[in-house]
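Protocol step 4 of 6: structure prediction from sequence.
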Amino acid sequence: MSRRTSAVDWLFRHRENGQIALGQVPNLEQRVFQLSTVIGTLLPQSRLRTALGVVAIGALTVWGFDELIRGVNPFRRLLGLAALGGIVLLARRR
């Protein structure tokens, strides 16, 4: 096995079933994030739009921590960390 193949295996291989795992069916947190983001984008500036933004950030935060802690491979854990890092960067911009 080449060095590249072993790095890909380490990064993307599911730790429980041995399959390559890049993505999966969206879980509840991802669906809440997606739906609230899309609906909020379509609305004019209002309290409802702000509330949907808070819901979206909350859902993404929960998803990020879940992936960071329980991700099935290092790629998924890094994805969770990236989501949390993005949230921190957005918070610092305000």
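Step 5 (inspection) to follow. The chain has a mean pLDDT of 92.
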